[in-house]
Hints:
Number of helices: 14
Distance between the termini: 37 Å
Number of strands: 14
Helix content: 40-55%
CATH architecture of the largest domain: 3-Layer(aba) Sandwich
Radius of gyration: 20 Å
Largest sheet: 6 strands, parallel
Order of helices and strands: HEEEHEHEEHHHHEHEEEHEHHEHEHEH
Number of domains: 2
CATH superfamily of the largest domain: TPP-binding domain
Strand content: 15-25%
Shape: elongated
Oligomer: single chain
Amino acid sequence: MILFLISIAFRNLNPMDCRLPHSIERHEGAYTIRNRDERSQGLKTADPSDISSRMDGPLAKLAGLLGGLEETRGKVSVLTGAGISAESGIPTFRGPEGYWTVGSKEYRPEQMSTRAMFSLDPWEVWSWYLYRRTVCRKAVPNPGHSGVARIEEILGDRFRLITQNVDGLHLRAGNTKERTFQIHGNLHFRRCATACSADLFPIPSSIGDRGRNQTLSPKEKASLKCPGCGGLTRPHVLWFDEYYDEHFYQANSAIRWAVESALLLVVGTTGATTLPMQIGAIVSQNQDAILIDVNPSPNPFQELARSHPNGLVLPGPSGEILPKVVELWEKAGK
Length: 334
């Protein structure tokens, strides 16, 4: 019954509608989460120079938790966000690099990444996404991505990756498509804008790297037409004025796996969209689960982890933290 209700709810879940059983506030760079009892604690930014000295205790606790997890063979969810890709040089989505100029007007990413903007000026939206795709194509997976791929190798079918990132770096690092829920899509693919079919098509190989504000040629526009109906295709990404669904974004599958997970590892996400925060809230309410947050910056998941009996906050870049986590996991599995 619980899973059925979750399935119904996510049919109408907008990525930016972030409702939780907690109230999350931000003031002068610090987050505060108020729980049902109205208790609150501020989240403090980790001092990078102090990370190593503060890791011994949490890693020792993690070793014990992973040992118990491997005995029970519990399921694992790894939830990743823009922070892990930022370590590969990909600017975060809402940063200055995401702004786009059309004529004399500058648009924010939250405006460009909408069905409304695509309906108004589809080729400008395509130009923006193809430029973003170029940035992603030039980036390479970092040790954080490699760590997530290694965790999948260790766990096999007990593992699922839930990623908000549309850059495809996890797949390039070695994670399998079958065990990866790309809940915001993948900008290396496209689909019919009028949904004549549910098929996904790769971006044509004839479209190479793009410069900022570079317009599309007539030949390039023709190559982006739908092979089925001849109409427009659109980037295979979840827009801000759309809703999660199962077919394209595997939203219900991600929630279902999280409900059944014995461990949630959160890496590089600030919880700015709905589904990730719902996943965190679900796992945090399971007192037997393990909840780990890896992030150098304050974020709501840190407070969820701090308030959980089996929660751990590992402050720092994923490229530094995850190799240590992988080492512990390899030892626990022997």
